[in-house]
Amino acid sequence: MTVVPEDPDACGGAQDWCILLRMKMPDVDIREDGMRYALRLLLILVIGLTLSACQSDDTDAAALGAIVIETASAKAQLTRQATLQTPPPTPITPSPTAPLVTDTPVPSETPTPSVPIVQADYNAYVRTGPDETFESIDFFLQGQTAEVVGRYTNEATGTWWYIQRIDTGRDGWVWSGAVTLSGDENTIPFIDPPAFPDS
Asked: Cα 86 from chain centroid?
């Protein structure tokens, strides 16, 4: 086998490898076959190193497992010993002091609001008049409250309250069946409604 000097530009930057791989052998193109041979040799070398590393890892893993088991057994033994050596708790005797006597507060009555208030039981319409034929101008949402400043008894649908909103919203008429009244109903004056719309 002899090394054949070549043009350095033909091999690019890897001139040393190129020169080594361009050896003349009878009836063999070293450039292609040499690269294949080098790749095979490299692959065998990588597989061999991997297998040898795996064998040493198995041995290390078994030794590591034994160390972990020994450590856990030692800690368990120390825990058993510590539990057996703990003395029982000392009973605490109660002191001979008399219990404190406190006055029980007397529940106070919930004051009745000076102005009757309604709270919406569910979402209801606020209307321009005391009937469903009047235009709805707002919603009285469940849980909202309003002061009741007037009432009207409609023969067909019952009592309607004229409300002034405490929170945001427009004042108007709300049906008594959609709200809960708090306060004295007798203090709410009757008021004349606007003219009913033509049917």
From this structure: 44
At residue 164, the 3 state secondary structure works out as strand
- Which element (helix H / strand E) includes 9? none
Task: Specify the CATH class of 117-187 in words.
Answer: mainly beta
Q: What is the pLDDT of residues 114-162, one digit of tens each?
A: 899 999 999 999 999 999 999 999 999 999 999 999 999 999 899 999 9
Domain assignments of the chain as residue spans, ordered by start: 2-69, 117-187
Q: What does the block give as tokens for 101?
A: 């006597």
Amino acid identity for residue 65 in this structure: G
Q: Cβ distance 147 to 174 under 8 Å?
A: no
Residue 158 contacts residue 173 (beta carbons within 8 Å): no
Contacts of 77 by beta carbon, 8 Å cutoff, 6+ apart = none
What is the rounded distance in angstroms from the CA atom of residue 1 to the CA atom of residue 95? Answer: 107
> 129 near 193, Cβ under 8 Å?
yes
> For residue 183, what is the enclosing H or E element?
none
Question: pTM for the complete prediction?
Answer: 0.45
Amino acid making up residue 69: I
